[in-house]
Amino acid sequence: MTTTPLIRFSFALASVALACTAQAQTILKFSHTDQQLGARHAAAQVFAKKVEEYTQGRYKVQVFCCSQLGNDPKNIEQLGLGGIDFTVSATGSYAPHVPTLNLTMLPFILDSYEQGWKFYDNSKWLQDQFAKAPAKGFRFLATWEAGFRNMTTREPLNSPDDTKGKKLRTFPNEMMRWTLEAMGFGVQIMPLPEVYLAISQGAVAGQENPIDTIYSNKFYEVAPNVTLTNHVYSPIPVAISEKTWQKLTPADQQAMVRAAKEVTPFARNIIKDNDEKVLAEMASKGAKINRKPDIAAFRKSVEPVYVKAREKYGADVDQVLSEAAAIRKSVK
After folding, report:
1. Which of 12, 101, 153, 186 could connect to 206 by a Cys-Cys bridge, CB 3.0–4.6 Å?
2. pLDDT tens digits for range 34-56
3. So what's the architecture of 23-330 in CATH?
4. Which is nearest to 93 in space by CA: 262, 234, 273?
5. 129: part of which helix (H) or strand (E)?
6. Residue ranges per domain, the chain?
């Protein structure tokens, strides 16, 4: 059959359209452990829209919430293997791969969101630690927000005197375990989706997490005593699989970085601005909010943690504490 130039041109256009469509269907998996009502899920959705926009539809990010593809350790492991493309988790969750990141979980080193943002945006020590990640199979794109970690317990909690004989759930992080044990708690490590039931059945006395996580997982329903200890500032760096990164063109790499960094102010503000609203809503549903626990006593109880940290991590500890002290002085 003889084809005319017009028909050949139409075939060519159709082929280009099919190629573009196929390219637009490149799916990148973003897995996280937050609930659909949580702030990190909202941030991930905004990120997905920006990636699609900035890559002109060549890439689409599919967000899997609620530990559908795995808990935090599994998600980070899958980044290295290339099983998923993105995750977002507490800085300390990445410590099994970059051990010095445990030091970001040192207790009571930062007192406000503004101090935390300055530390994560400007700390030379932290940037040096983040630079180790690509060799471990992933790289950090930006630091989003989760907030300060606080306690929710079945019984009232006001000081370390109230921790004795109580088992508290936390995530698998060395520094957090040291901190809670120094406060007097027994520590139970378990995946986030199991925590609600474990508290309701009395397997643990409570758990610790940022306010948004407490709210979105409804932990206040089974552990109604919400104690604002703010014992650790716990933002959530978003990371991309290094295998995924290396497949991207330089332009698309920059698109990923741009999208992640542009979400940062959104993620930070939604957490900071919502803390009081969320606390009020939890209180309206029966939670008892303790705004003035004996922080001095808690600070005193964790002093051995700094000693243990220096024994294991040496000069890195003093560098972290020095940078944090300078930030506390400059940002009130």
Report:
1. 153
2. 999 999 999 999 999 999 999 99
3. 3-Layer(aba) Sandwich (3.40)
4. 234
5. helix 124-130
6. 23-330
